[in-house]
């Protein structure tokens, strides 16, 4: 037990160090956290075993999902959504659809069609935890940064909603696609109403709640109640939490509570960021502990899936991105498709819901997360080398050349 406690302390300190290291090396800190989990676990030093977490492991992954969803909702101002939706909608939609069906087609011989569709839905998005820090240090224009950031935010929602919608079909039984669609539609609307109502309730309570000494613990308690209530009512607690966060982040201008502010302050965002940081540390190290390397099959299949996803995304980016985007930025957007925390957390939850094939989906999703982050970390810096720069000029000739398209951009 002392080794586990020591490891937790070291992980938190190293997490801050790795975040700083990313600024110098551009290696995503989530990749280094996964490597840290591998090093601490059965493959490396044997300090920590997955069994040490016991039943707390799945509970903590669910808590991570709830916290990240709520923070994601708080980070979705409606004005930013409207501004960036035009640039990101085509790439987001077509890339997600292509990912779902490519993954289903490649993985279905091993998993079966509907379980493979669940896996495709899990992998349909991009990781905010990887994309946002990377685009911040690549010298991209504000337009491209906003589009990629918005894509990662929107697909985090898709990654959570779509897999749970497909789980009933993957489980099988006497159920039709129409019945599932109807049931999902009703439950989705119910979750929207629950989240909106919960957000408005907290807006009414927020001014008084801020007077509490432990305001933020009260807020997270409320968020957990919203999630638990949604699940108890057989609607998506995850969607309800996300919508509650969006509602809190976007109160109407005419709304006030006793003359006190109801807006999410910078202090609020900083504290939420600290909580998400800790959740991210735990989960990616936990993911590293969960990885097994006794079989290469999942990683070979994961490499095939990542290659197919990146090839399809390159073709889609070439078609749908505005021609005013510079060539280098279009090329970066075409390979900025790492999978991350949302995919890994949802895969863990799906493994609990699927009696057959759930573990295979989880293990393969974990492998794709690792391979995709490694691929993105390697490919993006290579685009600035002479050979790849020439390939970028050929593949993305219709786009604006600019200084970024023809030469290395200082960052």
Supply the helix-strand structural class: mainly alpha
The overall strand count is 0
Overall 3D form: globular
Q: Radius of gyration, Cα only, in angstroms?
A: 21 Å
Bin the strand percentage: under 5%
Amino-to-carboxy terminus distance: 44 Å
CATH class: Mainly Alpha
The unreliable regions are: 404-411
CATH architectural category:
Up-down Bundle
Mean pLDDT: 78
Keywords:
Na+/H+ antiporter like fold; mainly alpha; 17 helices; 411 residues; single chain
In words, what does this structure look like?
- With 411 residues, the protein is mainly α.
- The protein has a single domain, classed as Na+/H+ antiporter like fold, CATH 1.20.1530.
- The protein has 17 helices and no strands.
- Helix 12 crosses helix 15.
- The longest helix has 34 residues.
- The protein is globular and about 60 Å long.
- The N and C termini lie far apart (44 Å).
- The C terminus is likely disordered.
Short description, anyone?
This protein is mainly alpha-helical and 411 residues long. The protein contains 17 helices and no strands.
Give the secondary structure arrangement, pairings included.
Layout: H1 2-25, H2 29-40, H3 56-74, H4 78-111, H5 113-122, H6 128-136, H7 142-171, H8 177-209, H9 215-232, H10 237-249, H11 266-290, H12 297-320, H13 327-335, H14 341-353, H15 358-382, H16 386-395, H17 402-406
Helix pairs in contact: 1-2, 1-11, 2-11, 3-9, 3-10, 3-11, 3-14, 4-5, 4-7, 4-12, 5-7, 5-15, 6-7, 7-8, 7-14, 8-9, 8-10, 9-10, 12-13, 12-15, 14-15
